[in-house]
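[Structure tokenization] protein backbone as discrete codes

[Encoding] learned vocabulary of local backbone shapes

[Begin record] amino acids and matching fold tokens:

___
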Amino acid sequence: MGFTSSKASHNVLLDREHDVTRMPTEWMSLAEADLKLTDLFKALTDFGCGGRILCESPIMEEDALNMKKAWMKVSGEKE
């Protein structure tokens, strides 16, 4: 499903009862989140997924490196 505008995507999120009230400045770091990153990465590996993950936490660089380390551990990829 493609969106023609950010307003359209915003409306879809509202229709699906997502919380769209937080602003990017209120986002939390991975350490504070309840996301089970290792489980997510295991599922992505099991299904042969590939691509990129965008990190927009308040400490992007640190969280991006932690995500990379977790991915490499789960997937067995080397640098």
Remarks:
- The mean pLDDT is 80.
- DSSP finds three helices and no strands in the chain.
- Residues 24-75 form one domain.
- Helices lie at 6-15, 37-46, 60-75.
